[in-house]
Backbone:
């Protein structure tokens, strides 16, 4: 095999020079630059000489989008979008929603160049990335190959800054790629073995960053900065070393440093402090519509921080123009009732999760008795069989969901009905028999069950306590568990504490949403089925072991889990989609047959509130973390307000642009 397709339903636009090449969405052809249209809010800055003209702020070949190709309208520049969030950390959602990536998923889940002009891929080993000449960071400085070199040599390979080394996706069979700078706008990564996950990681909701603003960060780096000046900055920042300071100021995804240059459509404004986070348009953003209007259409996005429990009510009174985060299905009635008077619509988007809510027995619990119990597959199967999913679906979701295990959903081409239904039927008799066989028996044959050491089989479920829906489902599960002598107790806590207790092994079971990506394809890595991330709540210490290369956490010792890990590694060596699909099928069977997580109901619609004046937001869509970053895949830079100031709409000669496909 000399040439291979790209990851994740990707359609290749052209084959050039023996290697596949992805072309940009629309590119300006050579010749005279088109008369791009400056957003009106930036006119004064241009007139005063504070900003260059728009034609000088854009790359020579900007990404050009015709909104009508996806059934949307050309928009008006201007206006502000208001949203509600519950934590300061939620500023990272603007990186998710803005969704500017080196390569990005389109609405059909094909990967297309975005920040990059094009990508050449050969044998899924050699990736040549072509930047857009003239592209600039949000502060106006050039975005070039130096930003990639700086990241690789001075951040990823610097042991002081990155003690664990480069991200795991950059290491294939324990080998890192050879990195080359070809010219100012071209870089290349060459692995000995295929790395089919590389492009998908670049396109992720929380993306792999392989570039950083070198011009800004060198002032914090020991190899570049004046020692005395750098030490003063370290002391001023209250850090112990320049490396610690570097990691503090360089948080592109967390989005907490307003001084850090970015490539996103909106930039965190220094004025956005306290409970009001303000994001202003990036004057150097690389996208335009096919009328020549620089995107994004919206001038500002404002996030107001509020109590998560109050966000549905605040949304119902019109405090948010676009809201899905912190809204749940149980809020639909309230939101719908107020929609007409307040001036918004409530869309119900399809949900891409494997399960709306799932239980996660902690196979790495610190308590040896509970660890042994939950590592026994009979116990996990019993706890799954004892849940009346149809009751949950009818009582909580009005029958709109699907009773199922935590597995891929029917919209995925990898959907397996047997996996989706594995131990998902309601069978108390079989559940009781499995617990008996595991040595967890009732007192006197009819009372509460005891663990083999005589300790009560009383399961404490850790919860982030953010939803009444969660509480309602757990109450129904508690009632059905009680019928087989199992006591279930819920312990709510603040989200940070919730996760820390799980990571440490103090929590024996937790409740959270199911698979983030229930609509996966064969060319997406089967990460969620393998013990490769600490965030996977059923095996946090095994995941941490993989993420740190064995420096911390624990090595998996359960046979089915080791099989999943081996298959995960095999996926990276597979030669084609068919082989990857086979690995997915085997992993999904092992995962669901062993009930490592206990799903409840899938296909629960996600309420999305859209102000009547907000346009280009799809009424029907898929609300999913990966792939696409919730609103991100639907191009939030194309959303606009109908009451915004209208700009000139004289269409540029469309023949000046080259289409996606």
Residues:
């Amino acid at each position: 095999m000399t040439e291979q397709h790209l990851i994740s339903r990707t359609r290749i636009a052209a084959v050039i020079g023996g290697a596949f090449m992805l072309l940009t969405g629309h590119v300006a052809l050579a010749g005279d630059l088109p008369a791009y249209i400056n957003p009106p809010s930036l006119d004064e800055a241009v007139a005063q000489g504070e900003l260059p003209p728009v034609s000088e702020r854009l790359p020579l070949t900007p990404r050009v989008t015709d909104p009508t190709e996806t059934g949307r309208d050309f928009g008006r520049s201007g206006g502000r979008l208001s949203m509600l969030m519950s934590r300061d950390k939620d500023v990272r959602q603007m990186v998710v929603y803005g969704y500017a990536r080196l390569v990005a998923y389109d609405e059909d889940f094909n990967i297309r160049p975005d920040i990059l002009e094009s990508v050449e891929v050969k044998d899924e080993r050699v990736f040549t990335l072509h930047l857009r000449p003239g592209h600039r960071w949000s502060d106006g400085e050039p975005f070039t190959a130096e930003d990639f070199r700086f990241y690789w040599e001075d951040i990823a390979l610097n042991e002081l800054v990155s003690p664990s080394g480069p991200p795991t996706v950059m290491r294939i069979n324990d080998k890192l790629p050879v990195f080359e700078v070809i010219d100012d706008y071209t870089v290349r990564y060459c692995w000995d073995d295929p790395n089919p996950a590389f492009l998908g990681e670049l396109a992720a909701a929380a993306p792999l960053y392989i570039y950083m603003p070198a011009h800004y960060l060198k002032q914090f780096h020991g190899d570049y900065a004046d020692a005395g000046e750098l030490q003063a900055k370290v002391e001023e920042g209250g850090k112990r070393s320049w490396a610690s300071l570097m990691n503090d100021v360089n948080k592109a995804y967390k989005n907490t440093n307003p001084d850090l240059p970015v490539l996103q459509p909106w930039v965190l404004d220094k004025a956005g402090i306290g409970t009001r986070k303000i994001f202003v348009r990036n004057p150097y953003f690389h996208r335009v519509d096919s009328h020549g209007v620089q995107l994004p259409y919206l001038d500002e996005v404002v996030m107001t921080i509020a109590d998560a429990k109050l966000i549905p009510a605040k949304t119902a009174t019109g405090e948010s123009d676009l809201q899905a985060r912190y809204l749940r299905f149980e809020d639909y009635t309230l939101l719908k009732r107020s929609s007409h008077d307040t001036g918004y619509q409530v869309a119900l988007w399809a949900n891409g999760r494997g399960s709306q809510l799932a239980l996660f027995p902690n196979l790495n619990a610190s308590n040896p008795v509970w660890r042994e119990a939950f590592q026994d597959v009979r116990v996990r199967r019993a706890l799954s069989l004892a849940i009346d999913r149809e009751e949950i679906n009818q009582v909580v979701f009005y029958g709109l969901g699907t009773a199922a295990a935590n597995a891929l959903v029917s919209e995925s081409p990898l959907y397996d009905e047997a996996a989706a239904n594995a131990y998902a039927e309601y069978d108390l008799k079989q559940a009781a028999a499995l617990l008996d066989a595991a040595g967890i028996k009732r007192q006197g044959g009819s009372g509460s069950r005891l663990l083999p050491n005589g300790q009560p089989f009383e399961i404490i479920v850790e919860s982030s306590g953010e939803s009444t829906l969660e509480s309602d489902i757990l109450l129904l599960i508690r009632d059905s568990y009680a019928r087989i002598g199992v006591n279930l107790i819920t312990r709510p806590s603040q989200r940070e504490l919730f996760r820390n207790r799980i990571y440490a092994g103090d929590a024996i079971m937790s409740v959270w949403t199911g698979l983030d990506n229930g609509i996966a394809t064969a060319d997406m890595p089967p990460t969620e089925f393998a013990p490769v991330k600490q965030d996977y709540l059923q095996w946090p210490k095994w995941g941490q072991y993989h993420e740190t290369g064995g420096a911390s956490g624990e090595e998996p010792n359960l046979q089915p889990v080791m099989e999943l890990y081996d298959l995960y590694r095999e996926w990276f060596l597979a030669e084609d989609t068919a082989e990857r699909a086979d690995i997915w099928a085997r992993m999904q069977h092992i995962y669901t047959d062993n009930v490592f997580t206990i799903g409840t109901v899938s296909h629960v619609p996600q309420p999305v509130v859209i102000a009547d004046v907000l346009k280009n937001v799809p009424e029907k869509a898929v609300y999913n973390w990966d792939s696409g970053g919730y609103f991100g895949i639907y191009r939030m830079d194309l959303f606009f307000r109908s009451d915004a100031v209208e700009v000139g709409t004289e269409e540029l000669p469309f023949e000046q642009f080259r289409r996606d496909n």
Notes: The two ends are 25 Å apart (CA to CA). The CA atoms of residues 107 and 634 lie 6 Å apart.
